[in-house]
Design a protein that fits this description.
- Keywords: Glycosyltransferase, Transferase.
- GO terms for molecular function: pyrimidine-nucleoside phosphorylase activity.
- There is one protein chain.
- 45% of the residues lie in helices and 16% in strands.
- It is of the alpha/beta class.
- Helix 4 crosses helix 9, helix 4 crosses helix 10 and helix 9 crosses helix 10.
- The structure holds uracil and calcium ion.
């Protein structure tokens, strides 16, 4: 087989076979096919698209390029959740203990990464002593015992995706639905999930800005998952403003505790109930989505969800007493109010910019080498649709320096007010099941 023939085949709009796609991905991973040929092939995909079979083949070829996590020693159906990323997205912290309390095994592999705030592991480290440096055997034992554990990411998961993603980044081929969908799905499948619940964000703060694009991506991922035998469903949820109130590591842990107690923000709570219902249902722990939701509400009301969070933190060396006394979480030296200069209704909270402001405070990493400050971040005091009077606080800035002028300036530019009444955005746009 010659790579140039396969580039031409795709360029001319023909379907590549499973063997051909395997040849390309194996060759690229090993280094026998050069970047310039893969670049041309990616651009051909960008313009010609891929059939459902090709997408499934590409996904599985990337899965096969590296380690595949074997979770078969864990009892039950392993359901993983994936979010396409937003600002202040605390759902993972809430959903893990919440669905585990209902009996769904949560075997979470998580990372740190770059961004506005830390990853799930960084956030959990706000509980003094919590660590993810456990062996695979300990990990499996903990999930069987407590239904929930988190381990750091294996270094050699989907190396083909890592290489392709880096190349796409510099060849103008990131924004292709088949490539995005197979990239995301390959990582979830390699991590060992039997079933996958996707939270596809839509709106100004999301990767996909329009509902149409979000729907296309969601459908593409659901099709790939089901095609390769992993039960997959997607929820399209709003990211036209940050979810919940907290953006920051310790602040989000506190927000997760509040939500597990039934005292969390309305939008975060509702999204967790919707995603959680799909997870419980996919794990065969309920006969319907309605029954699944009822079970989740029950463990919030009877305290089992919160208790599960404590057990999970303590099992991995963390201070579980933060669930009773969140003041034991890292605290910032200063709390500075951003007050409204005019009156009106909040019409926009540009999530990207709010996230950037949180990163400047030290809540997230700008580069791999950056240190995270777990205590700092932002608490939104107003959301879209809320009425604001002059002098009222829009945001509380949690900082370890008094020098927050740049942060405040960014926030004033990100929170827009209108004289007319504004409706709050719809939270759940669509649920896509096969
Ligand atoms: N996120 C991914 O993991 N892959 C993509 O291609 C795009 C976003
Ligand atoms: Ca939040």
């Amino acid at each position: 087989m010659r790579m140039v023939d396969l580039i031409e085949k795709k360029r001319d709009g023909h379907q590549l076979t499973t063997t051909e796609i395997n040849f390309i991905i194996e060759g690229y991973t090993k280094g026998t096919i050069p970047d310039y040929q893969i670049s041309a092939w990616l651009m051909a995909i960008y313009f010609q698209g891929m059939t459902e079979q090709e997408r499934a083949d590409l996904t599985m070829a990337m899965v096969a390029s590296g380690d595949q996590i074997d979770l078969s020693a864990i009892e039950g159906i392993k359901v993983d959740k994936h979010s396409t990323g937003g600002v202040g997205d605390t759902t993972t912290l809430v959903l893990g203990p919440l669905v585990a309390a209902v009996g769904v095994p949560v075997a979470k592999m998580s990372g740190r990464g770059l961004g506005h705030t830390g990853g799930t592991i960084d956030k959990l480290e706000a509980a003094e002593g919590f660590h993810v440096e456990i062996t695979n055997e300990q990990f499996i034992e903990l999930v069987n015992k407590n239904k929930i554990a988190v381990i750091g990411q294996s270094g050699n998961l989907t190396p083909a995706d890592k290489k392709l993603y880096a190349l796409r980044d510099v060849t103008g081929t990131v924004n292709s639905i088949p490539l995005i969908a197979s990239s995301i799905m390959s990582k979830k499948i390699a991590a060992g999930a039997d079933a996958i619940v996707l939270d596809v964000k839509t709106g100004a703060g999301a990767f996909m800005k329009t509902l149409e694009d979000s729907r296309d991506l969601a459908r593409a991922m659901v099709n790939i998952g089901n095609h390769v035998g992993r039960k997959t469903m997607a929820v399209i949820s709003d990211m036209s403003q940050p979810l919940g109130f907290a953006i920051g590591n310790a602040l989000e842990v506190k927000e997760a505790i509040d939500t597990l107690k039934g005292e969390g923000p309305e939008d975060l709570t509702e999204l967790c109930l919707v995603l959680g219902s799909h997870m419980v249902y996919a794990a065969n722990q309920a006969f319907s989505l309605e029954e699944a939701r009822q079970k989740l509400i029950e463990v919030i009301e009877n305290g089992e969800a919160l208790e599960k969070f404590r057990v999970f933190i303590e099992a991995q060396g963390g201070d579980g007493s933060i669930v009773d006394d969140p003041t034991k979480l890292p605290q910032s030296a200063y709390q500075i109010e951003l007050v409204a200069k005019e009156e009106g209704y909040v019409s926009e909270i540009i999530a990207d910019h709010v996230g950037t402001a949180a990163m400047w405070l030290g809540a997230g990493r700008a580069t791999k080498e950056s240190e995270i400050d777990l205590a700092v971040g932002l608490m939104l005091n107003k959301k879209i649709g809320d009425k604001v009077q002059v002098g009222e606080s829009l945001v509380t800035v949690y900082s370890n320096t008094e020098e927050v002028e740049q942060v405040k300036e960014e926030l004033y530019k990100s929170i827009l007010l209108s004289k007319e009444k504004v409706d709050p955005p719809v939270l759940i746009h669509e649920e896509i099941m096969k």
